[in-house]
């Protein structure tokens, strides 16, 4: 697929849509949302076309990656046209777009792997309760001691439940060679990550308690030294295997068989591919530096 041609086609369709909403009473925020949705629909249509054709697995993934990248460029350009980015919104948005791009090799893998649906916390709780009940009932202690142990066990779950409904769903779940992998993608760890860090520690400990082999992985966009102590807390916990920057791309390559880092190097050039108008805006407002993956 030709990147320049794709950019031209995406921009033409987005320009037509922008013209259709320009004269409406929609707020600039709602126009931005509508433009993002339009870019999503255009991307989905192109991907559906690719999936319907006889591409090899590798070529299909490369085409989908290129379509996705082009859609991101045009989405950013047209959102900025109706609602100019400031630095926090722009840096956050670049991070948000990184995750779904990095999941594509798992959705269209060259190596054998399969996605799986994560367990429901209620099912996990019931299974563990039965195992504990069976274990305690077979202990050589009197009934009073057994009741005390069961009460302590129930109290622990009560404390956990008191923290709110636990959701075991992370960003990606897959199975490969009889082992399960549960992945959380992060752009970076900042000063407001305490709640998320505590949740990740709890979720990982529950996965480790399951009878199957579960590997908890964090895929991080930023380099390790660019993050704060919350990342180190997870890394030292023994519950998470943490991969940062190039380490993340290496693991994606290992699992899926696709060298995403090399594909990005050969096909993505943010500063050259965005429009001159958008590039000038980013440079003027010192935002161009955030165009890094």
Description:
This protein is an alpha/beta fold and 293 residues long. The chain has three domains: 3-94 and 264-290, no CATH class; 114-119 and 168-256, type ii restriction endonuclease, domain 2, CATH 3.40.1560; 121-162, no CATH class. It is built from twelve helices and five strands. It has helices spanning 3-22, 28-52, 57-82, 87-107, 121-137, 143-162, 194-209, 229-236, 246-256, 260-267, 270-273, 276-284; strands at 114-115, 172-176, 179-186, 214-220, 241-244. Strands 1-2-3-4-5 form a five-stranded mixed sheet, with helices on both faces. α1 (3-22) runs parallel beside α3, α3 packs antiparallel against α4 (87-107) and α7 (194-209) runs parallel beside α8.
Brief summary of the model shown:
The protein has 293 residues and is α/β, with parallel strands linked by helices.
Structural class computed from helices and strand pairing: alpha/beta
The succession of helices and strands, N to C, reads HHHHEHHEEHEHEHHHH
Strands, total number: 5
Instruction: Quote the distance from N terminus to C terminus.
Output: 22 Å
Proportion in β-strands? 5-15%
Q: Rg to the nearest angstrom? A: 23 Å
Topology:
Elements lengths: L2 H20 L5 H25 L4 H26 L4 H21 L6 E2 L5 H17 L5 H20 L9 E5 L2 E8 L7 H16 L4 E7 L8 H8 L4 E4 L1 H11 L3 H8 L2 H4 L2 H9 L9
Parallel strand pairs: 3-4, 4-5
Antiparallel strand pairs: 1-2, 2-3
Helix pairs in contact: 1-2, 1-3, 2-3, 3-4, 5-6, 7-8
